[in-house]
Design brief:
Length: 78
């Protein structure tokens, strides 16, 4: 039995990049969902995220969900 080290290294590299990318995208979604809009001189106890931050967070979470769904598709379809 022989091991194709080049192919193994390529799989490792792609897996590492995709994993870091999805985790980073999820982090962007969390930051966008928790971002508070700037308030002028008012101390607000609870503030909802702005519309742009919320849209970015939803987009980031949707891309994460699409990546996970595609991964499940690849596993199940094979």
């Amino acid at each position: 039995m022989t091991i194709d080290w080049a192919a193994l290294g390529q799989v490792f590299g792609v897996t590492l990049v995709v994993t870091v990318g999805i985790v980073g995208l999820f982090t962007v979604g969390i930051v966008g969902a928790s971002r508070k809009p700037a308030q002028e001189g008012a101390a607000v106890a609870v503030a909802a995220p702005g519309a742009g931050a919320r849209a970015g967070a939803v987009t980031a979470f949707a891309l994460c969900a699409a990546a996970v769904a595609y991964g499940i598709y690849l596993i199940v379809a094979a």
